[in-house]
Amino acid sequence: MAKDVEAGAHGEYSVKDYADPLPAPLVDVEELTKWSLYRTAVAEFVATMLFLYVTVATVIGYKHQSDPSVNPTDAACSGVGILGIAWAFGGMIFILVYCTAGISGGHINPAVTFGLLLARKVSLVRAVLYMVAQCLGAKAYFVRYGGGANELSAGYSTGTGLADEIIGTFVLVYTVFSATDPKRNARDSHVPVLAPLPIGFAVFMVHLATIPITGTGINPARSFGAAVIYNQDKAWDDQWIFWVGPLIGAAIAAAHHEYILRAGKALVMYH
């Protein structure tokens, strides 16, 4: 067991008990025989389906209300705007992570699952099943007004769009690692942390910054599901950005948290 050594306000050092959870096995065939695995996959499927329906409906509703052919007198000031769309995405993540965290961990995003896999928080079997469930659940059901599909906006280069997705996903996955870190609970037990809240706020803030550039992917299942329903060439041509970017961002966030932030702590090992 490792004990965390920390400096106090006057230079004193206090020792707190802390035990790192064991890393998840890379391949656990026995896990496939347990109902609990499939129950968590169902939770991911339903959560991703609800996430896509509510958020993309918000996007479509805004575009409809601000359509000059529908509202010729006040189109520019109608609808929830980018701020409202960002709130819809962040708010739904807050709600759904809160509801499913105790069941599946509340990933609702293949990039989050990929980052946790790299950090050995979930097994490869569980990660693959989660990603499949998330992509199957991510159906937006809308075709009008772009169907909520992610596309690189005119005037931005491919490199800008890719960097946008990498950085946005890094912010999200880094927040997930920080908010769910068991060491934080041991170290800051006097500060209650409701993990879904900072995760939802991270999604909200990233959407504010990146909606004008890519429509904000940071979730390959969300981008894939909307593209399947919309099914237009531009959405498919740009689709790789919304997979490669988030997976790279998630990998960097996992490495940053696990091998830099956590490795930099002063630890004394007791056996």
What does the model show?
The protein is mainly alpha-helical and 271 residues long. The chain has one domain: Glycerol uptake facilitator protein (Up-down Bundle), CATH 1.20.1080.10. It has helices at 35-65, 81-100, 110-118, 124-137, 158-179, 182-187, 196-214, 220-230, 233-237, 241-261, and strands at 2-7, 13-18, 267-269. Strand 1 and strand 2 (13-18) form a beta hairpin. Helix 2 runs antiparallel to helix 7 (196-214), helix 3 (110-118) packs antiparallel against helix 4 and helix 3 (110-118) crosses helix 5 (158-179). The radius of gyration is 20 Å and the shape is globular. The N and C termini lie close together (6 Å). The model is unreliable at 5-9, 11-15 and 265-271 (pLDDT under 50). InterPro entries: Aquaporin-like (IPR023271), Aquaporin_transptr (IPR034294), MIP (IPR000425), MIP_CS (IPR022357). Keywords: Membrane, Stress response, Transmembrane, Transmembrane helix, Transport.
